[in-house]
Structure formats: C-alpha cells, structure tokens
Design brief:
By secondary structure, the protein is of the alpha/beta class. The chain contains nine helices and nine strands. α7 (185-193) links the parallel β5 and β6 (197-201).
Length: 279
C-alpha cells in the first residue's frame, strides 16, 4: 500500500532495529545501560547534593518543556554540534525519541525558578565550589564525582500534564530522590516508575521551616530495607558542619513499587521479566 515514493524508501531488514548514530530524532535510549541480570538491593544515600530547589506548583512543563529549543542552552548546543540549523531545531516534543536532547532540556524551561540561583531558566550552582552553571553541566560534574542528586520542592510538585519525560529526564540527570511537600498523583507514580524515590515532608514542614538552603549535603537512611509508606530520617549537613535531621514519609505506596525501585525502574523490571521468560 502507499504511493510509489513511499514504497521505494529503503528500510533495513531483520528482527532488531538498526539505530542510526547520526539521527537527531531517534537514539538508542540509555535506560538499559549496564543493566545487570538481577536487580540490586536499594542502598542508603550519602553525601547527596541538591541539583534544583523549587517552590510550589512546579509543573511537568517546568521540568520537561515541550516547546522551542533555545540555541544557547545545552540541548540547542547539542543540535548545533550535530550540524542542525537552529531554524530546524523543531521542538522538545518532536525530539522526545532522542534522550540526548531531552536530558539536556530537563529543568530547562526558561521560566523555571531554581532558588539556588538569582536568574530564571535552566541554571544551578555546583556544590561545594559554588560555581554557577547549567543544570545539565552540573549533573555531569556530579556524575563524574559520584555524587547522587536531590530535588527539593514545595506543594503539588509535578502538576499539569502527565509528561513522562519529566521523570525520565530527572532519572538521566542522576536525581535519586525528590523531597516535596506534596506530589501530583501521576508524576509521583512516574518518578517511582523511573527509579526515583519520592519523599514527603512531615505535615506542616517544608524546606523553609526546616531552614534548608539547598547548599547542604544530604544523607538518607532506611532505603536499604524500604517499605511502602515508611518514615525515613534525612540528615542535612551544611558546609560548616551544622547538622539538621528531619523525618519524611516515603511516597512509595505499594510492594510492586518497591520492586520497580529495586530494578531501577519499570522499564528495567519488564526487561528482566522478559529475559527470564526466554531462559
């Protein structure tokens, strides 16, 4: 079926898709990189740093914008390096099949208000050196240093449309935990599905009431034997050694979600199940 031009398009044969490394629209996703045959136990978090600190009602569009790709930010620079003219950038939504674009755009909304910096947009501060940089570049530095990442948020974190890349991009940036006053229902589920742990402040508490600036390092215990709805202790340590401890509720709401986290996410869970069925 189809017209002559469509039928004449050359397509690869075989059971496996042949990834084109030159494509700027579709790339082999990084979610299964270094996947082990068996899931590993969850581990407690030590010396984590805050990548982003935001207030109330941060939407999935703040986290993963779907619109225009700014040429001077990491996603635009990536496309320019791939010889894509800025006039042909298209949108984040159109390039959602390329994780290299999408991870660079995560927290890249020009209206994002990251409280770690004075200006709006996809910027943050790398700690402990205090260097201001883009959120993506900071995530690379932290990855090189082996530092896990935390997001601090207010009420209704992840509100708006159920954009899956808001969770996918967070995972690829190296975010292991989001601590918020409350979560939008679907985004909470998506975070767990991508292996990111949602934690909720105790009633009446938030970053401001606890005196958290986002410049601290964070230790989170109790993850190694996590149970649904468990209460965990978070220790925040400032660079001058001052320590603050506070309780959070795990917003991992069922045993199956614990298994998703153990596997690193729902995609990894399903793949391991398929591999076992083929044995």
């Amino acid at each position: 079926t189809g017209n002559e031009q469509w039928n004449d398009v050359e397509v690869p044969s075989g059971d496996l898709y042949e990834w084109n490394p030159e494509s700027t629209y579709i790339q082999e996703p990084a979610f299964f990189k270094d996947l082990s045959p068996e899931p590993e136990d969850l581990t407690d978090i030590a010396d984590a740093r805050v990548l982003v600190k935001v207030g109330d009602s941060v939407t999935t569009d703040h986290i993963s914008p779907a619109g225009a790709i700014p040429s001077k930010m990491p996603a635009g620079q990536y496309l320019i390096e791939k010889d894509v003219d800025p006039r042909n950038f298209n949108s984040f939504g159109s390039r959602r099949g390329n994780h290299e674009v999408m991870v660079r755009g995560t927290f890249g909304n020009i209206r994002l208000r990251n409280q770690l910096v004075e200006k709006e947009g996809g910027y943050t501060v790398h700690f402990p050196d205090g260097e201001e940089t883009t959120i993506y570049e900071a995530s690379l530095q932290y990855a090189d240093e082996g530092v896990p990442l935390v997001v601090l948020a207010g009420k209704e974190y992840g509100s708006g449309s159920s954009r899956d890349w808001a969770a996918k991009g967070s995972f690829l940036l190296g975010v292991r935990v989001v601590i918020a006053e409350s979560f939008e229902r679907i985004h909470r589920s998506n975070l767990v599905g991508m292996g990111v742990v949602p934690l909720q402040y105790a009633d009446g508490e938030n970053a401001e009431s606890l005196g958290l600036t986002g410049e601290e390092s964070f230790d989170i215990g109790g993850l190694s034997d996590l149970e649904p709805g468990a209460e965990l202790t978070v220790k925040a340590t400032s660079d001058d050694g001052e320590e603050k401890e506070f309780l959070v509720k795990t917003r991992v709401d069922s045993p199956v979600e614990i298994e998703y986290l153990r596997n690193g996410g729902i995609l990894q869970t399903v793949l391991r199940q398929l591999l076992k069925e083929d044995e």
